[in-house]
Structure formats: C-alpha cells, structure tokens
Amino acid sequence: MQLIDSIVAQAEEMAALRRDIHAHPELCFEELRTAEVVAQKLMQWGIPIHRGLGKTGLVGVVHGRDGGACGRAIGLRADMDALPMQEHNHFAHASRYPGKMHACGHDGHTAMLLAAAQHLAQHRDFDGTVYLIFQPAEEGGGGAREMVREGLFTLFPMEAVFGMHNWPGMPAGTMAISPGPVMASSNEFKITIRGKGGHAAMPHTGIDPVPVACQMVQAFQTIISRNKKPVDAGVISVTMIHTGEATNVVPDVCELQGTVRTFSVEVLDMIERRMRQVAEHTCAAHEASCTFEFERNYPPTINAAAEAAFARTVMAAIVGEDKVLVQEPTMGAEDFAFMLQAKPGAYCFIANGDGQHRDIDHGGGPCTLHNPSYDFNDGLIPLGATYWVRLAQQWLAQSR
C-alpha cells in the first residue's frame, strides 16, 4: 500500500481528533462545535475558510504553488453530522451526549479530509486549487442541497466534486468505485384513508378504512412486480400503519407511511404515479377517500463514468488493482447526489473492516452503519487522506 509518509506520521494526532469529534456528536444543522474544530485546524495550517454555507457548513481553500492562477479546481467533500440515536459503546471516546451518536462514520470522514488538508497546505505540490467541503446535515437534512442552493459551485467554481463513505463488511485495505447509480433516491409517502367509523359489531353501518389499507399495501407490491421492468431496481416499503383507538370501534381514519427507493428518476416517476392511482382507486372501490402525499428527499447518487474511472486509477496506484472492488449499488441514500446533479464527480466506498478494530467495551452489536455498537476504523485515516491528496494532485495535473 502506497501511503504518504507525512500523513502516516500524523495518524495518531488525526485519530485523536476523530475520537474527540465522536465523543461530541452534533445533529444536522447543529454542527457548531464540529465546524469550529474544523475551522481552527484549517486556519492553523494557513488555509482560508468560508463559514456558514448551508448554515453550519464551511469550505477551506488550498491554492497550489501557482496560487491558483491556472484556474483549475477540484472539490473534496466530507460530511460532519451525527444521528439521533443512543450509543451502546462504553469505551473512552463514546458519545457524551445522550441520544446522539456518530453511528455512520462522519467523524472519520471529517478526520480523513482534515488529514489531507494538512498535507496539501504543507506541501502545495500542485497547480490549481483544492476546495475542502465540510458539509452539514447529510442525515436527513439535505445539507448538500442547501450548500448548492447557497452558491457552493458559484463561490467556488470547480471542475468536479468527489465524495467518500466508509463501508463496513468490506475487507480493510480495499476501496470500491463504479460508474452509474451507486446509491438510491430516498422518498417518503403518507396516505390518509378516510372512511366512516362505527361500532365494530355493526361494520355494515360504516366504511372501514382498515381493509382498504390492507388491500392498498398488497397492491403496491404489484407496482414493483408488474409495472416496473424486472431489470430496474425499485423498493416500496410501508413501514407504519396507524389507526384505531379501541377494539370495539371501527375507526374513521387509517394512515399509511413508508419509503420508496429507486436508482432512476424515471422509475421513481412511474412508482409515484401508480401509487397515487392505486390509492385513490382502491379507496373509491370501497366508498372511502384519501389524501396522497409523496415527498422526494434525496435523488439517486449517480457517478459520472469518466470521473469514476479516473478515481479507480488513483485508488489502484495506492492499494493495488486487486484491492479496488466493484461498488455494489445500495438502496441506501446519500445527499451527495445533489452535488453530483450540479457537477460531474464520483462517490466511492472505503472499507471499514469487520469491526475487529473496535476498542474493548464496545456495545457488543455488529459494527454496521446506523448501529449503536458501530465505530469508525481509525486505521482508514491515512488511506483515505492519501486517496484525497493523490486524487487532487493527479486531477489538477491533467491536461485540459
């Protein structure tokens, strides 16, 4: 593995920084302490910063030996926020804030980009500019969307933007990237079915919304199996059904909520249209009515082919061609998709291992994302930082 010596030399310092961030998790758009830690480090290394983009986000600007005069630029992005969940780990750097936890590794993502920033600022052995994007609110807040809306790519004109996420279960020392869709769109629906309540012993006197809901849930699955092309990916999951107050009362209302995931907007358009039709017509068949709400949260994350191929070449030079894996698409969602809608780029996975890296007194559960026993693998910091540095150097060295 071809790691950068100066980054390896600072590995313990960066691991300590990562653990400090882990112990002080902050939720979306509340990342004040985390952003201040990042800002202080960047300024310490002589990197100018722009604060407050996307509320709590910030961007560091590292010019190369030419002072950025050539006009070339690349963007590297890390997310900073934590999740609203209770940590089960009891090691020294466990969360100090009840109900908040870095269970997705954003603490590690921040540390990897900081380690790269330190090297880039100290050496500046490139021409052009590297923009260091520290993004808030990935976990449901759409921080990437807000940064783009507030002028990220206007204030910091870059040719391409790249992101990275740790991936538990992949063997440590490997990375993965592929062109095309790599993460799904995230969408939510809420359907409120209105019938006519009454006595449960006399159901004929009312309109029971419960069997309407049951038929609706079953019918939604035919959209996946009979309306969608078999080769296209799509998921409809009804995850909540709320109705009723007493066992002997037919309720007036039944509410369904859930999520839809797809890898393309075209499939998403079809699913939303068919779900609305199924909901409205199923209700009409039972003399009930409904309101149908569908919210599109994050679009699919789609890697540009040229940028994904370039990133793969950089990875192979660091870890070896056999350690660069095919990036298996996942139905999880990622708001880096908003940046990829605006700029070409690619989003890769860096292996977090199987959990053996965790300190004693971990929670005992699996080391998987969004699990209360998760912890980021600090051994990844030199690899992730080396990748960021080599990616920036080689991108900016290309002839245009």
TrEMBL record:
**Keyword flag Metal-binding:** yes
Q: Which residues form the Peptidase M20 dimerisation domain?
A: 188-284
Q: Is Metal-binding set as a keyword in this record?
A: yes
Q: Where does Mn(2+) bind?
A: C104, H106, E139, H165, H370
One Pfam family named in its UniProt record = M20_dimer
- Give the record's cofactor note, including how many are bound: The Mn(2+) ion enhances activity.
Cofactor field: Mn(2+)
- Keyword terms: Hydrolase, Manganese, Metal-binding
Which superkingdom, per the lineage? Bacteria
User: What is any one GO biological process for this UniProt entry?
Assistant: diaminopimelate biosynthetic process
- InterPro entries the record matches: Amidohydrolase, Bact_exopeptidase_dim_dom, Peptidase_M20, Peptidase_M20_dimer
- Supply one GO molecular-function term: metal ion binding
Q: Which PANTHER family match?
A: METALLOPEPTIDASE, PUTATIVE (AFU_ORTHOLOGUE AFUA_6G09600)-RELATED, PEPTIDASE M20 FAMILY MEMBER
Please give the name of this protein. Hippurate hydrolase
Native source species: Giesbergeria anulus
